[in-house]
Recover the amino acids of this structure.
């Protein structure tokens, strides 16, 4: 079955990563990728301290290639070391650093370690970070301490794929201390983060300007029409007044002429 083949390849990649993580500690190991090439298997190790993986004159990397070839039955493994650029945004490297500092200096300054780690991550551009330290720290009773800052997704597709998560352990005098780190990097695209494109904004502004000019032209035409209608109404009113005045004058003239005719008749 093809599905079983893919599952077996992924299992082998996971086992190689776990073996490298367990054998090489305090080297800032982030992740391991396995690529199939015509020349053989290409293994890319991402680390913040690649010099420690290579070793003096390449001793460590030579031993690692031999052990990977014999243990995992690889034909021609080719190891490549890649340096992690943003160290404070990788949860695995951050968790490993917290564990190493607790093992070296003890649990007396764990709060300072947590706050300093948070400030470094936020300064590197992280949107949010959460650190959980659980165990017998600082006293004999087991507790769980939470350090949190920023905005962090806890559910949904963004929380599964976008948030970098890591778990590790630190061995101190009081016992085993569990460390869990979650970091949301600035490259995460949130579904509720909407940005307007400049070209679309300019087009919409031009359309709104044309609409405004058209509306202004319509308003001017309407105002001109209303003025003309008002003028015509006033003209009709004036003509009506003039007609009424003419009628009155004619009536008055007729009355005067009738009175004069009567006077003439009486005098005769």
């Amino acid at each position: 079955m093809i599905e079983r083949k893919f599952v077996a390849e992924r299992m082998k990649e996971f086992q190689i990563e776990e073996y490298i993580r367990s054998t090489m500690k305090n080297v800032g190991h982030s992740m391991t990728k396995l690529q199939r090439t015509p020349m053989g298997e290409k293994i890319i190790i991402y680390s913040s301290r690649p010099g420690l993986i290579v070793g003096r004159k390449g001793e460590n990397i030579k031993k690692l290639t031999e052990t990977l070839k014999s243990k995992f039955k690889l034909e021609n493994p080719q190891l490549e070391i890649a340096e992690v650029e943003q160290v404070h945004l990788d949860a695995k490297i951050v968790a490993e650093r917290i564990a190493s500092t607790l093992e070296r200096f003890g649990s007396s300054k764990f709060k300072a370690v947590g706050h300093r780690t948070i400030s470094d991550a936020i300064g590197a551009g992280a949107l949010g970070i959460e650190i959980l330290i659980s165990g017998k720290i600082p006293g004999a009773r087991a507790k769980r301490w939470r350090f949190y800052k920023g905005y962090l997704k806890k559910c949904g597709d963004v929380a599964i794929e976008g948030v970098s998560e890591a778990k590790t352990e630190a061995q101190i005098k009081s016992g085993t201390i569990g460390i869990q780190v979650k970091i949301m990097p600035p490259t995460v695209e949130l579904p509720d983060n909407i940005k307007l494109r400049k070209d679309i904004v300019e087009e919409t502004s031009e359309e709104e300007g044309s609409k405004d000019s058209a509306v202004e032209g319509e308003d001017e035409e309407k105002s001109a029409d209303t003025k003309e209608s008002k003028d015509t109404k006033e003209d009709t009113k004036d003509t009506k007044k003039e007609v009424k005045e003419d009628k009155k004058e004619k009536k008055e003239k007729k009355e005067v002429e009738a009175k004069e005719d009567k006077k003439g008749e009486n005098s005769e």
Remarks:
- The beta strands are 29-37, 40-47, 78-83, 128-135, 143-150, 164-172, 175-184.
- Residues 198-267 form the longest helix (70 residues).
- The radius of gyration is 45 Å.
